Amino acid sequence: MTGFAYIRGVTTIELDPLLCNGCMMCIKVCPHPVFEALKRAVAIREPNLCIECGACALNCPEGALNVNPGVGCAAAILKGWVTRSKPDCSC
Amino acid sequence: MNTTDVPTVSTRLGLVDRLGRWRVRWGIGRSRYRIPPGLYRVGTPDPSSPVLVTANYKLSFDALRSELQGVDAWVLVLDTMGVNVWCAAGKGTFGTDELVRQVETTGLAEVVSHRKLVAPQLGAPGVAAHEVRRICGFKVVYGPVRARDIPAFLESGMRATDDMRRVTFSLGDRVELVGVELAWVVKWVVPIVAVMVLLAGGESILDRTRTGMLTASPILAGVLAGVVLVPIFLPWIPGRAFSLKGAILGAIVVGATLALTPGVHSVAASIQVFLLGTAVASFLAMQFTGATTFTSPSGVEWEMRRALPLQIGAAVIAGGIAVVRIFGG
């Protein structure tokens, strides 16, 4: 995925290292190299690559991850603004 | 459990499947392109064979089964209302509840002797693996992103390499998407060009068509820039925001079109179509965010809050120039 870098410094992903039990589930479900495996825990290596799909937070059994999930789609966000509802894509 | 009524599906795609794929790529009947949810078999699976989970969008189901030559497996199809795995996971229809429901209604626990479900990795935004296990006793193992890696994944004892876990966005992927985007945009562009041809002056129909097309050409160039050129040249266009990439390419292509059609537009009209064409290219390029694999909603919202006012502003100024040109002189 070299060459593809999106807007920096805006993603909402957060990890509470005190809750992480090192099960590595987040690393398995993340489609981008956002996380880094440490000895008995994970760390967020590159938050700018996060697409906020929410897979890691949903699959974290300890609730150590927090992200505001959604779709990175202008049409969905525009529709959400117009209808004053949660962005939802029609795909 | 009697499994004789579980349908067997081929790993080969027939003519009907290929035609269907072509048709939905053009956006025709896409939401109706579904198969019944439930359990299917590929090859000759036995109770120890793996269970692969997928969505009931026929294109997704076909993509999966066509990669399973030589594999004996059960395929559990969730009811995602005809939506692909990744998008359905985002909506939650490919999710914990539906997965548990299908495990129960198909009586899967009596069909297989193990307690493992291989879910596509891109289904993870909708499925909480630990919840599925807690509710129905099946362990969710996340398989590779792409169906083509499944045979290697199964052979290695259900281990996915880093490459299998990463989404990509190759030139081939982007070219395929251009077709889908074009099919969508043609529905808007054709009527607009038709109106411009109708409004154009001229002696004959041929004359009017020529004048109308020449008048419309900078705007068509803007559409081309936003819908075709930005997706194809995406990684090489400067800027991170899609709206900026679209504005850059739009300005170049619309400007070049104006330069190549001297005498068609007055100076005022040239400024008008330059602004409008660039704004259209920027807006359409921004729409492409939804088709990519690497944009975050926070990022898209960030650029929309900045770009939309500029796009609308450019269009309003262009409209103002048009009004002055028509009524002012």
Automatic annotation (TrEMBL), chain A:
The species is: Candidatus Sulfomarinibacter kjeldsenii
Give the highest taxon in the source lineage. Bacteria
| 4Fe-4S ferredoxin-type domain location | 11-36, 40-70
Against InterPro entries, the record matches this protein to: 4Fe4S_Fe-S-bd (IPR017896), 4Fe4S_Fe_S_CS (IPR017900), Fe-S_Ferredoxin (IPR050572)
Protein name, entry field = 4Fe-4S binding protein
Look up keyword Transmembrane and say if it applies. no
State the UniProt keywords alphabetically.
4Fe-4S, Iron, Iron-sulfur, Metal-binding
Q: Which residues form a coiled coil?
A: none
Q: Name one GO molecular function term.
A: metal ion binding
Does the keyword section mention Cell membrane?
A: no
